[in-house]
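Would you be willing to look carefully at the protein I have copied below?

:::
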Amino acid sequence: MSANKQSKQLRDIPFSVLDLSPIVVGGTPADAFRNTLDLAQHAEKWGYHRYWLAEHHNMPSIASSATSVVIGHVAAGTSKIRVGSGGIMLPNHAPLVIAEQFGTLESLFPGRIDLGLGRAPGTDQMTAHALRRDLRSHGEDFPQELAELRAYFDPSLASGKMYVKAVPGEGLNIPIWLLGSSGFSAQLAGQLGLPFAFASHFSPNYTLPALDLYRRSFRPSKTLDKPYAMVAVNVIAADTDEEAKRLFTTIQQQFLNLVRNRYVPLQPPVENMDRLWNDYEKEAVEQQLGSSIVGSSETVKEKLQTFLDDTKADEIMVVSQIFDHQARLRSYDIVADIAHLKEKNA
C-alpha cells in the first residue's frame, strides 16, 4: 500500500468551527451574535462536529469576550452540535467560577459542552489589569490552576480533601482540552492524557514541533488512551481562487493592524494589499498566516489534504474570518462538501 493510501483522508476525520464572532466595520456586537448563531445553525445542518468560541478582551473586532454567555446562546439555538470554548483563558478567572459556569452549561445542554483552556490572558497588560487577576503571573501557575479546576469536576483528582464544591459542576463529565500556540500546553496535555488543540491559524511555524511534542509526551489516562490532536487553520473558500484571495485580504488587514497595535473592527476586502503594507509588515503578516488555505473548492481540497498529511490531525477546526456573512457561510459550505460532512450527517 502506498504512503498516500495509508494517510488519512478528509472524509475520515471530523471538521469543526472556531468562531471569533467578528464585529465588522459598520456593524455591532448584536449583529455579530446574530451571525454567530446563524453560522452555528448552518454548521450543524452541514455536519460540522463542534462549534467553539474564543475569549478575547479589548478587541473591537471580536464580540465573544463573555465566552460562556455566547456558548449558552449558541447551544440554545442548536440541538446536537457540540459547543465550547476555544478557549477560556484560565489566568483571567478563578477556577471555581469556570467550573460553575461550565457546570451550568453542561447541566443545561448535557453531552454537548467542551471546555478548551488557554494559559495566555488573551489581551494586553492594561486589560489584564482591568480583569483584576494576578499580573505577576505569566502562566507559570497554569498547571496548578488546571489541577484545581479539574478537581472541582472530579474530586478524586484533588491532592487533599475538597472543602469547596462547584455547584453545578461536581460529578459532570465535561471534556477539557488544552489549547496552545507553542510547546508548553502541548507537553502538559500529553503528560495529563488530555486532548490538545493547536492554533496553527496564527502560529504555523510551531505546529509540527508542538504536535510532535504532544504525541511524544502522551500518557494514557481515563480521559484518553491515545493522543487526540485538533488543529485550527484559516480556510477561505470561494467559487474562484481570485475571489478567495480577495476575501482573504480581510484577515491580512486584521493581522496587519495587530502588527501596528491598531485595534479596529473587521475591515472589508481590498483589491491590493501592497498599497497598505510595507515589506517588513508583509513579512510579519505572512509568517503568522503561513498555514492559511485560500482558494476555490479544488484548490482548498488539495491544500487541506496536504495539511492533513503533514499534521496527521485527528480533527480540523476551520477558522474563516470573512467580512461578508454570506461569503462566510459559502466558505464553510464549500469545506463541508470537500470533507463529505453532509453525507455523514444525512
Summary: The chain has 13 helices and nine strands.
